[in-house]
Amino acid sequence: MWLSLTDRQRRQPGYVVHRRAFRETSYLADILTPDFGRLACVFRGARKKQGASLEPFIRYGLAWHGKGQMVTVTSYDAEIEHSLRDRYLYAGLYLNELIVRALPVEVSAQPLFVAYDDAIAGLARRDPLEPLLRTFERILLRESGYELLFNYDHITGDVISSDGYYRFVPNVGFESIQKTSDAISGRVLLAIADEDYSNIEVRRAAKYVLRQALKPLLGDRPLTSRQFFRGSNHEV
């Protein structure tokens, strides 16, 4: 649902998650805000303003106006700047691409904004990468209406047994199966539910399950940001 003009003029913190050149002096961009989620907007004249660069991973104070699905940003000031390098930069680009591809426009997303804010700060500190990414992916799924419950069997409603084995059914959840080469142990699922990624088996399972869970939101087109990780020892 579109937002009122009065609401649109309210100042909000926000991040630029995608931008592209528009005409000779402007940018078209997607921004992430807490109250209005992802917004499509135009930054008029931003490409020619001295000292007013428009970059990712900077939290801006933003104000805008307009009706319809495209708003015009009237002011923006950098509040917090984060410097990301190497694979942490690639991970930040991955988070941005997830937001653009998976989050509908103009859906209030305060928990997701907080999660993104925390994730970018963690990337700037060079925190352990996989726990940070998996936490954000889970919140993105939840805020998009696809929450995953790692500690329940979707058929029986019972709590996952640490001694059992399970398979993941996209858009549904986990169900008990006999032990097979691709089964996920209950112990691993319970660790993911507790966000305990200290074990490599847990990290691998979490990456696999969340990648499968995100597919319905992302579609068949490959993520461009994943290509940056090719040839390295890390993959998102």
Please describe what this structure looks like:
With 236 residues, this protein is α+β, with helices and mostly antiparallel strands. The protein has a domain at 5-144: Nucleic acid-binding proteins (OB fold (Dihydrolipoamide Acetyltransferase, E2P)). It has six helices and eight strands, in the order H-E-E-E-E-E-H-H-H-E-E-E-H-H. The strands form two sheets. A five-stranded mixed β-barrel has the order 1-2-3-5-4. A hairpin with a 3-residue loop joins strand 6 and strand 7. Helix 3 (110-125) packs antiparallel against helix 4, helix 4 (129-143) packs parallel to helix 6 (200-218) and helix 5 packs across helix 6. The radius of gyration is 20 Å and the shape is elongated. The two termini are 33 Å apart. Residues 1-6 have low confidence and may be disordered.
Strand content: 15-25%
| Residue windows where pLDDT falls under 50 for at least 5 positions | 1-6
CATH topology call of the domain at 5-144: OB fold (Dihydrolipoamide Acetyltransferase, E2P)
Tell me the series of helices and strands, N- to C-terminal: HEEEEEHHHEEEHH
Task: Let me know the number of strands.
Answer: 8
Radius of gyration: 20 Å
CATH architect. name of the domain at 5-144: Beta Barrel
Write out the CATH superfamily name of the domain at 5-144.
Answer: Nucleic acid-binding proteins
User: What is the strand arrangement across the widest sheet?
Assistant: 1-2-3-5-4
Provide the structure class.
Answer: alpha+beta
Helical run tally? 6
Summary tags:
5-stranded mixed β-barrel; alpha+beta; OB fold (Dihydrolipoamide Acetyltransferase, E2P); 6 helices; 8 strands; 236 residues
